[in-house]
Amino acid sequence: MCGLPDGLGRLRNPGQPIPEFAAALPRHTPRALLQFPVSGADKYAVATARRVLVVDDDEGVRLMFSRALRLDGHSVLVAATAEEALRDVEQDRPDAILLDLKMPLINGVGFLFRLRQDPANDRIPVAVITGVPTLDDATVNDLRALNAQVWHKPLSIEDVQQVARALLTRGPV
Predict the structure, then answer these.
(1) Quick one: average pLDDT of 141-148?
(2) Which domain holds residue 28?
């Protein structure tokens, strides 16, 4: 028997229709997360949660990071490309961003240059989370100039939560 818990101890068949509240959720919300019912208190918590944007071209990383952040009480937006992330920033104004460095077309540094061109985005704290073991001096200098923290993969669920908490507590680095 496969499926997702429905909050009542039963498993819900993934083929069942998505609940009505799904229409009000952002387009980024993964279908699997829509299987869970939302009570009135949960709706309030989601509305007041700090928004974190996860930008990574790897779907597995996006899923793991978003689950870790939701477990920690954050509202999560996800983007697979820098272009999508820039649109999300414009529309949804996240409170913090977790950003992959190596992505196709526009990489993490390119995203940061574009993000910081708008003065309204200067105060959004960003953590670059990369699988690159060592970064060249030019990249490190660019990331410092663009006001971003650097973390190296792999990160545990607790590490992801800690990075987000640090960004949201301290704000821009």
Answers:
(1) 92
(2) 11-48
